[in-house]
Amino acid sequence: MKKLLVLLLCCPLTLLAQPLRVAVAANAQFVMEQVKVAFQKKTGMTMELIVSSSGKLTTQIQQGAPYDVFLSADMDYPQTLHKAGLTTAAPVVYAYGSLVLWTLGNLPLTADLRVLSNPAVRHVAIANPATAPYGEAAVSFLKYRKRLDPVKPKIVYGESIAQVNQYILTGVAEVGFTAKSVVLDPSLTQRGHWIDLPTTGYSPIAQGIVILKRTSQLQVARQFVQFLRSPDARRILQQFGYRSPNS
Asked: For a Cys staple, 167 with which of 80, 173, 201, 246, CB 3.0–4.6 Å?
């Protein structure tokens, strides 16, 4: 017993503490892996990322999931949590994301989405617009280009952007709408090709962050939110195609 007590006293407190549990919308999965590394290196704190669609994460939080921080792909979901009294403050925008069209093949991609009528395109991957803001943006862009109805029979919905990416990477869908941050990840930059979609076709994807009231690590959560505003974090976000709320 004495040996155990001595061992515990010798361990740094950061090793004994629970990791900061950060719920992350799937569009930011890759960028947050790099942010996590930078944050841990700077502070010595540990982080755990839980990745899913914004809507699913919101439901989990409403049902009592033990997360400390929530990074949504929009402002509506964190605002809903704030109105329900589940956050320490109103959500703030930490970055603006953008939408791209991505294929692994040699399909000619253009912003008018003409490629979606190509017979070679049998399936078009989109995140579920009911729970994933990037899916909502994709549907909005399809409507803007007046291509939603003709394309509907080809659409395969993913639970989140992460599943959309899997559909594209495994060939389930020949083309798909995903987040720019995904195709800029170093592991995927050589996979197929993509084009930016004009933001005139969908609302700006303002991504919000909130600290959850049930957190037992309020100080560390605040440190993380503050870190996202730092030059180091901003640099990482910009490398993945995000715009700063101050730009």
From this structure: 173
Could you tell me which residues come within 8 angstroms of residue 126 by beta carbon, excluding any fewer than 6 positions away?
A: 135, 138, 139, 155, 156, 157, 158, 164, 176, 177
CATH number reported for the structural domain that contains residue 189 in this entry = 3.40.190.10
Is pLDDT at 171 greater than 50 in this prediction?
yes
Number of independent structural domains in the chain: 2
Q: Are residues 63 and 124 both part of a single domain?
A: no
Same structural domain, 107 and 191? yes
Taking only the tens place, the pLDDT of each residue in 63-112 is 999 999 999 999 999 999 999 999 999 999 999 999 999 999 999 999 99
Same-domain status, 196 and 224: no
